[in-house]
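Progress note, sequence design subtask.
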């Protein structure tokens, strides 16, 4: 009876070893297929995949006799097999990326299976070795079925939702990323040896500690790079906003120029009509015509003239925009023709403030008013004051309320950056239904 049970246990162990190895091989190829471009298709692909599963099965059942109970060697050979067959079956990704995906998959798969097979043993109050004993075969099979079933679902979900974005990492960066799975694999090997009650070399433990130390250093470095990337992204968004503002102002200046050309053409025709009326001594008609022409021309008068062509175009364009939206706007300016600042910086600075003011006024019922001051004295002083709904100012910033904060909220930061560029100062406040942003930049 004992011999029969022993034989039954060996047959069952062999059967489940075959099933588990086949499942692991299929999951691995399913995962790699997301990133790779096959070089082999059809039956040939299936034959090589079956050969891969067979070699993995043979190794998993013979490594104890070949290298002893060394999980390190077991991992190294399995990863090497996975890499070789991945290279045989797939043309892409590149070799270094291929190795990275192989190591990453093996690590995730092993950690996931360890968690889902160790947790039941812990709940049953037995050791991991006892849980794998034939007496608890039902529990072990159930835990393994849950493990492979859930891993299969996760892999299929990953295949469905993952969108390949290409390989943008530089090989040196990818080597740095290797530090994490390498440290994890070494720690996993030490953990498995301890879990199975085997002695672990002190040198191996020291190597694991060193790998973990490198991994933490790599984390610090990568966080630093991520911060730099975030800053670069903000600068790119800010630059895009500057280009949009400059493009809008160029279009507005073109519109003003076309309107002025049309007004000049009309003015010549009006002078001819007025001259003809005067020559005919029809003074009453000439007076009425002159009043009519004067009324139409007053509607086209330039509201602001600060002797700076770019700022004139900006101020008058924003004034026209405000008037269309029934917002009262008043300007107090003087001669700004000698301002030494870059014209693009001036445009971005004042356009942002005026756009914000117009947008804030649109949300108000009444009053809707904007007061603009741009004065050059010893320094360049500018201020935009507008009616507004209550505004929250936190540490000198106004949190954006727009749907995607990553793509908005750069207006005031851009203004502050320009003020700092020219060693100026600025401040903002909200009181009694009015928001004001004021700043001063030295001219010399």
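Output:
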């Amino acid at each position: 009876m004992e011999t029969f049970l022993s034989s039954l246990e060996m047959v069952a162990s062999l059967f489940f070893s075959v099933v588990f190895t086949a499942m692991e091989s299929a999951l691995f190829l399913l995962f790699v297929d997301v990133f790779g471009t096959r070089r082999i298709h059809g039956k040939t692909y299936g034959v090589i995949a079956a050969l891969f599963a067979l070699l993995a099965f043979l190794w998993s059942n013979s490594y104890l006799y070949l290298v002893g109970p060394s999980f390190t060697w077991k991992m190294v050979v399995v990863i090497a097999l996975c890499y070789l067959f991945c290279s045989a079956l797939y043309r892409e990704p590149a070799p270094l990326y291929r190795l990275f995906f192989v190591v990453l998959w093996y690590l995730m798969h092993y950690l996931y299976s360890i968690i889902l097979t160790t947790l039941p043993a812990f709940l049953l109050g037995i050791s991991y070795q006892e849980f794998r004993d034939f007496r608890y075969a039902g529990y072990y099979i159930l835990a393994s079925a849950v493990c492979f079933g859930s891993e299969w679902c996760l892999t299929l979900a990953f295949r469905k939702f993952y969108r390949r974005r290409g390989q943008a990492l530089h090989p040196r960066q990818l080597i740095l990323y290797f530090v994490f799975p390498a440290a994890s694999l070494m720690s996993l090997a030490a953990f498995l040896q301890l879990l199975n009650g085997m002695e672990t070399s002190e040198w191996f433990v020291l190597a694991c500690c060193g790998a973990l130390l490198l991994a933490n250093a790599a984390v610090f470095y990568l966080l630093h790079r991520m911060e730099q990337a975030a800053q670069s992204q903000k600068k790119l968004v800010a630059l895009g906003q500057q280009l949009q503002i400059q493009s809008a102002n160029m279009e507005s200046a073109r519109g003003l120029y076309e309107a002025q050309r049309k007004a000049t053409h009309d003015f010549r025709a009006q002078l001819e009509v007025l001259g003809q009326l005067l020559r005919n001594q029809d003074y009453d008609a000439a007076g009425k015509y002159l009043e009519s022409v004067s009324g139409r021309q007053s509607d086209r008068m330039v509201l602001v003239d600060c002797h700076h062509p770019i700022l004139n175009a900006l101020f008058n364009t924003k004034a026209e925009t405000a008037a269309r939206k029934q917002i009262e706007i008043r300007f107090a300016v003087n001669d700004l023709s000698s301002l030494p600042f870059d014209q693009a910086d001036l445009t971005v600075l004042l356009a942002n403030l005026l756009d914000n003011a117009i947008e804030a006024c649109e949300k108000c019922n009444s009053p809707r008013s904007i007061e603009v001051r741009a004065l050059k004295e010893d320094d360049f002083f500018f201020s935009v004051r507008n009616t507004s709904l209550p505004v929250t100012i936190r540490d000198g910033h106004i949190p954006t309320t727009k749907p995607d904060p990553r793509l908005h909220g750069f207006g005031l930061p851009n203004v502050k950056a320009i003020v700092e560029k020219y060693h100026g100062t600025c401040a903002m406040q909200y009181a009694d239904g009015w928001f004001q942003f004021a700043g001063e930049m030295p001219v010399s």
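The longest helix spans residues 202-279. Work on this subtask will continue into the next period as scheduled.
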